[in-house]
Amino acid sequence: MKVNYQERIDLTADELKIILSQQRTLPNKQKIQALYWLKTGASQSLTDVAERLGVHRITVHRWLKQYIAGGLSELLEIRQATGRPRVIPSAVIAGISEKLSEESCDFKTYKEIGQWVEENYQISVKYQTLHKQVHYRMKANLKEAKPVSNEKAQEAAIEFEKKSKKLLKND
User: Fold this and answer.
1) C-alpha neighbours within 13 Å on the C-beta side of residue 59
2) Alpha carbons 144 and 131: distance in angstroms, whole number
3) Exposure pattern of 46-57 as b/e (b: 16+ CB <10 Å)?
4) Are 35 and 9 in contact (CB under 8 A)?
5) What is the reported pLDDT for 156?
6) What is the pTM of this model?
7) What angle do the packed helices 90-101 and 110-121 form, to 10 degrees?
8) Gap between the Cα atoms of 49 and 56, Å rounded
9) pLDDT value at position 1?
């Protein structure tokens, strides 16, 4: 059974072309491109459209069902991604951020932060999770410069003076 997609799409080819040029995201461009090809007859089947776009034919079928059910607004609606919630609640993240911004903050390791979180929020957080949150997402750096012994600093200064004197003599 052959389905006439041109009749199901109520927008004209010119309207689809204008809408296509206004799209900024790749998924929306692909959706409008699929409608355009079906409307103009450039592609006769969903399978052909899917192959040209590099998506599965069921994806194109789902797009067409969305368009028929709710029109263009339903097709182009950006949905919120459903995902697993973060392990560390936002209130705890705000507390850590506040604590790290204080001048009296005495955290030297991520384990200390983990203990502080456990004491104040009664939440046990894995080291790796806490490190990722604090170091990469919050961009906080706990490391301090290692102290240099006075003897080594003096030796380095003497070596520098010797090298600079040699260079000055050679000039």
Assistant:
1) 14
2) 16
3) beebbeebebee
4) yes
5) 76
6) 0.50
7) 120
8) 9
9) 45
**How does DSSP classify residue 138?**
S
Terminal alpha carbon distance of the chain: 92
Per run of 10 residues, the mean pLDDT along the chain (length 171 residues) is 72 92 93 93 90 94 92 87 85 91 84 93 93 89 67 76 68 53
What DSSP string describes 23-91?
A: --SHHHHHHHHHHHHHHHTS--SHHHHHHHHTS-HHHHHHHHHHHHHHHHHHHHPPPPPP-PPPSS-HH
Angle formed at CA 142 by CA 137 and CA 146, multiple of 5 degrees:
145
Q: Say which residue the tokens 């059910």 belong to.
A: 69
Cβ-proximal residues to 124 (8 Å cutoff; 6+ apart), any chain: 114, 118
Rounded to whole angstroms, how far apart are CA atoms 161 and 165? 6
Query: Rounded distance, CA 133 to CA 135, Å?
Result: 6
pLDDT at res. 16 = 92
φ, ψ (nearest 5 deg) of residue 140: -95, 140
Six-digit token string for 71: 């029109």
In angstroms, the CA 29 to CA 63 distance is 12
